[in-house]
Input
Amino acid sequence: MHVIETSGLYKIYNEDTVPVYAVNDISIQFDPKEFSCIIGPSGSGKSTLLNLIGGLDTPSRGTVTVAGKRIDTMSESNRIRFRLEHIGFVFQHYNLIPVLTAYENAAFIMQLQGRGEKETRERVTGLLEQVGLGNRLNSRPAELSGGEQQRVAVVRALASKPDFILADEPTANLDTKAAFNLLDMMKQLNEEEGITFLFSTHDQRVIDRAKRVVTLVDGTLHSDEHRK
Amino acid sequence: MQLIKMAWRNIWRNKVRSLAVMAAVFLGLVAGMYSAALVEGIMHSRFENFIENQISHIQIHHPDFIRENEVFQTVGGDMSGLESVQKIPGVNSATVRTRIQCMIASASHTGGVELYGIRPKSENQTTNFSRHLVEGDYLKGEANNGILIGESLAEKLKVGIGSRIVLSYQDKANNLVSGAFIVRGIFNSGFNRYDESTAFVFQDYLNEYLGIGEDFHELAVLAEDINDLESIRPALQQRFPESSVRTWNEIEPALEIMITSSDLFSYIFIILIMIGLAFGLLNTMLMAVFERTREIGMLMAVGMNRRKVFLLIAMETLFLSFSGAAIGLLVGYLLVAWFAKRGLDLSAFSDVMYELGVDAVVHPVLDPNFPLVLALIVIATALLSAIYPAIKALSLSPIEAIRK
Output
């Protein structure tokens, strides 16, 4: 079963006046354990497609099925709940909560889900140690480097064991070393734990590591390259 | 717990701004609490003075005397009537008075006064009047022509202790009668208008001139507890079935209105302060929401529902206001308690206080429920102030918010 499936997907702005096709008739599937990226020039619709897949936006036409459920027809409150249970997000600007420590940030989504304290502590502490932040549990975001913050954001996204992780330009604000470290970490999580990652990116470093590269041009699917 | 922790830490993200709001809440509550207690203290002082010095808790009159004030409109009775009233459960003390309008004249001035014929012993038990004497002595010994007058009346008449003054009044048969009295004491009740229009003489002496025997115009009752008046009233009415029995608020409805409106004034004052603070809180929380647009967008993107976002903003507003309020309530309470014990000396405004019938040293009085009501008002203010910023936060689109 595909973890993500879109069919005849459109996102059209100003439909009644001068229509702008941000996403234009995209039908695509992603399977579990993929390490894929969506690339394309600015304005090609990468982020819009990611938002539609992540249930942050609703399509003008077409369907989005995630983990076997149509999210394009869900109510706003059901989509919020669905995102919490099934999708992990990593953002370009890390978006950690400044008043919480690294541990508290990473545990945030599990706590929102109402998971038990013991389970949360074991899972989050283990993951933070795995990504090399075992000694920074009590540091606030302002005390962490950009790379460390993004690693905390990745742990936050995957701690709750989502069906997949959507990462929008995750390396855009990182220096080369931090970007490579982050990518190595995500690759390792993909290969060892079978976590599905879907990136939107311009970054060649990410593209080089992806097993599948989907290229968008002007909102349409230009190419879909599977690599070995 | 997670939300509570976040909300508490969030209010300290901008310490100066939060401390300024807390200080405003603190000062507003201390000022509001103290001024309310002071007003209540002034009202309490005036009420006590009025009850203790003038009207007591309950009065009994001939039904027409209240309106017509005629000498013959007496309540028939003798000392056995007074003694029977004093034995009614709940009655602390009682006294009878003869009460007439008369002209008072000295060598230099003539004016009108309300003349009370009193029984010195029972009067002093009921009104504790002798403590207000500032010169001379209270009425004592056998009935004689001694008279007690107010300090301001003495100044008007230009008389002192031992001076002779002449009173002119109508007797029971409507004859004009005059009598000479010697000033034995000068009092200051704390209420200027009362002092310049009231005089006291022996009841037996006055009644003889009036020709009304042992009758009286007024029987004043001081209860042990002001809350028991309605239970005392039936026994009094039974003892004097033909007479009018009225409680203090029926005698002086204006006094009750004044006390009720002073409570209302205190609450209006507090609410006005709170409205001012509400705008401060609203502004602070709006700024906090605008500054954290991306963060709030992220919270909604990762799955925090609207109820929790609203709760987060509401809790931040509550913490912000209640941190200042808790200290404000405590300091306000201690301040009121300290002044309640020591009293606030307003003798610099003694003329005004004298006109108002209020003691120059005011002891603020705090209704025990007032801090609780204040706390509830603060909570209501905080929640109302949180609504608009929370709506703003909830109206954010996660996609647009994250991009900012």
Summary: The mean pLDDT of chain A is 91. Chain A touches chain B at residues 51, 54, 56-57, 77, 80-81, 83-85, 89, 91, 93, 95, 97-100, 104, 108-109, 111-113, 156 (CB under 8 Å). Chain A has one domain: 4-226. The helical segments of chain A are 46-53, 76-86, 102-113, 117-130, 146-159, 176-193, 204-209.
